[in-house]
Give the backbone structure.
Amino acid sequence: MANVLNKRNFCIIAHIDHGKTTLSDRLLEATGAVQKREMKDQLLDSMDLERERGITIKSHPVTVRYKHTDGTEYELNLIDTPGHVDFSYEVSRSLAACEGALLLVDAGQGVEAQTVANATLAVNQNLAIIPVINKVDLPGADIEGVRHQIEEILSIPADDAVLASGKTGIGIGDILTAVVQRVPPPRWADYPQARMLIFDCVYDAFKGVVCYVRVFSGSIKLNDQIMMMSDGAKTEVKEIGRFSPKMTACAAGEGLSAGDVGYITTSIKDLSEVKIGDTITMTADPAAKPLIGYKAVKPMVFTGIYPIDTSDYEKLKVSMAKLRLNDAAFTYQAENSVALGFGFRCGFLGLLHMEIVMERIRREYNLDIISTYPSVVYKVKLTDGREIEVDNPVKMPDPSTIDTISEPTIEASLHIPSGSIGDILALVMEKRGVCGRTETIDGHRVILHVTLPLNEILIDFNDRLKSITKGYGSMDYDLADYVASKLVKMDILVNGDPVDAFSCIVHEDKAVGRGRQLCAKLKELLPQSMFKVAIQAAIGAKVIARETLSALRKDVLAKCYGGDITRKRKLLEKQKEGKKRMKQIGSVSIPQEAFVSILKTNT
Amino acid sequence: MTLSRQSALGLYVHVPFCARRCEFCAFYEVPPRRADVERYLACAERELAELHLPRRAETVFWGGGTPSILAPADLERLAGATLGASGGTPEEWTVETTPATCRADRLAVLKNSGVTRVSIGVQSFDEAILAGLGRLHTTAQVSEAIGAVRAAGIGNLNLDLMFALPGQTLEEWERDLRTAIAAGPEHISTYCLTIEESAPLFARLARGRLSRRTPDEEAAFYERTWDLLEAAGYRQYEVSNFARPGYECVHNLNTWRMREWAGVGPAAASQLGLRRYANAANLARWAEGVEKGAPARTDEVILDEATLATDAVVFGLRMVEGVDLAELAARFPSHDWAEVARKASELEGQGLAEFDGRSLRLTRRGRLLADEVALEFF
């Protein structure tokens, strides 16, 4: 077991695509943790989906041994962190497990929104920050410019920034040296009682609930009686081990001690009972104070998820339960929709989180699903003084009983090329945003600080930001206050009957436009029937948009004689089957495809 | 359950040969090679001889293909075999022809054999449209053919016409109709162009060289047709069929009434003795089956009362006279007629049908939507 002074715990923080995972792979290779030929590209991103999207969703720690030029062998714990804003709580817990951070900046892209957000988190955790300018081998590299940005925007001295390339391996040795020399040895190691931080938690099909822990003080081994400090829950260590880089159980009698990173399993069966950010201590001699505060993560974005084929409901239910095992931030509960049948109301940290979960249901469980229009959590003050939270438009109370509706807002920083300020401001205005201060990064880039309603960025904000800035813009945000707003629930009616799946909460000023779009789209998608169908958008009893689908005038086979009867019968059977799959809303049959198209286009 | 009254049995003979494939046609047909014709005739004779109908067929229908493409001697052979099977001279005997093959020599043989009704596949009187459809005749040939039928002394003539053809305007169609009326046939069938996947036109459609008409456009053609023919004294009796009173095609009426019919020849369908089936739609396979004494059949269904009752309503509603629910209830007593009556009242409420508690008939709007209505009963 290494001396605590010879251990270093560090992480890599970066904006998406700045090369974090590739660089991590190089570090592992250089320290011999994995042989080159064993390496799959991007070893740490173990989910296919992560590898495909080039993003890390879950953090995976790795312990490596590194023989420094001074002859001493160091134990380095590298904690990879998710790069996306949806997972900033997880990022902050991972940072808390470290003493230092490599701040990776792409030499061509420069400092971006998440670089700033993550650097700020690291500074707040008092981590030693080592700037690394990556991809210096690429033709577009502007090393001086990036150095300047790091100093100007992040106020971090950049003279001693390490120049590196994860792709070619340039600077890997310099990084390792910097980690040993500039990252302090494990802190708080002399605290009298044992304290360890749960910085992540996963569900393993064989081991069950696995907690990733960083030991700050004391030690922990098999069969220790431990206590979770947030709620005093007691349990026992069933397995203990390290990441080298695969999970490897400690040898008999051995365990983890101050400065170590590893994993434990306990008698806890349900992932939701483990709180990321919680402090573990020993039952026999508990610590008086936890390491850092534990914060429950709350889902911010909600949507209804339904099986396209209603008979897949049970399968969907099973898949949700399995996903939840692995992802405590994902919540779901059964709901049913007149239009879509039985499904689930699901809560997510953000949009990316939502996309990832839906994609996993589709892929890993092979299910066809449809989601309703995403919603945020509204706070509704009723005329009788009560306040309720509404995450589903269908549950919005009658307008006459509502005093005010408040919606969550975000404080966003948009990093954009100076040339696109005008178009971005127009986008922000369109999305009901308010622009605060503007910072200039350099001659080409600015940061706009804006306040936006969360529900306005649910659909296409990021896509449009990217398209306006030709991919150069980026965004980061923090949740801000709830703000009272003139929001209304808009219903879509077909022949007077509301279609619950299409109900949405919109700002009063946008209701007519959106109502018209939805009605027009629906007119296009609904098959003509024997009757005229009125398609209306309404707020309460007030119709704000209307389209009429005229009645079908002709549907009859021209030739139908003795020889055509069997074929005609088969056709009728097929049509009848098709009709069964349609949803009956009052007198109108709506094909499943119409729901899918409307909900997909998010007009 | 009674499938039929003693009086309603039809005999259908399919003659699969055509001079060439028409662009709109999805029927089974092959070019008339002599060896094939010989084999066909021999097998048709044998199938007819082995048919052993339960009683006399009161109607006979030769369809195709093009029955009149057969040489006079071949026609005589087939007619002899048909009469052998039908159990005597039928009251109505229809033969389908094309203008180019509807000639005096053949008509004489047919008239002699007892044919009472000749149908000519005119499709259009417009030369440009005819060319576009890949037809082998000219408008002059149509006139000659009509003259030949009359000269042969056949008193029941039908003209088959098509509408909503590629490029056809309502006015052009109206002109076609007026020309047909002027020719004075007893019966006119008008078919809205339907492009089936097996028809050559479908390929043009798929390649984007042809666009489908909207239901609204087709409805306009239908309504114009119905108005015009009605005004000219042709009573509509089915979605696509019109006749001077007393000249309705009894053979076809009996199929919509779910009576019985026996089919001979490749692709011919039968509904006989509570079974519904079709002969293999391939000359060689059909012939082989007949030669081996093991008929090659497809789509065989054993008919139960519910199926027949439903079909009697669904297909019966194509007829202008509609269906007599009391009569059907007597034929198929176990069916849920209360449910049918409930649906009927609903349709009446929607202006799609007229229902007096016994007789149910579609209104004009209902008839244009007969397939949607059918779904209600299915």
